[in-house]
Design brief:
By secondary structure, this protein is α+β, with helices and mostly antiparallel strands. It is built from four helices and three strands. It has a three-stranded antiparallel β-sheet, with no helix packed on it.
């Protein structure tokens, strides 16, 4: 997942502090997943050779399936970020996700 281990005293507000038998033992700093999603979308755009918003519906559905498999929608505002990149509404992204679950 790419987390970083830190002494508990160095933990920031977004870090997770783990305790053992009542004592803080280690802090874990998780990567900024939202930034990772932007990088994934940019890589997909480069691989396709054009903006994702210019793709047809079938290609956009494929991208949503790929992103779901990679956990993109577990990221806060992931649906909004993907919808913006694809040039569709959040509702459309949810429809793509639900269509795959119903199939």
């Amino acid at each position: 997942m790419g987390g970083e281990l830190l002494p508990p005293g160095d933990a920031g507000p977004d870090d997770v502090v783990l305790a053992w038998q009542g004592a803080d033992v280690v802090a874990v700093r998780l990567p900024q997943l939202a930034a990772s999603l932007d990088h994934i979308l940019a890589a997909m755009e480069r691989a396709r050779g054009r903006p994702l918003a210019e793709l047809d519906r079938k290609a956009k559905q494929e991208i949503v399936r790929t992103l779901e498999a990679r956990g993109a929608f577990a990221v806060r505002h992931g649906v909004e970020t993907v919808a913006s990149a694809l040039g569709v509404s959040r509702f459309t992204v949810y429809n793509y996700l639900n269509r795959d679950k119903g199939a």
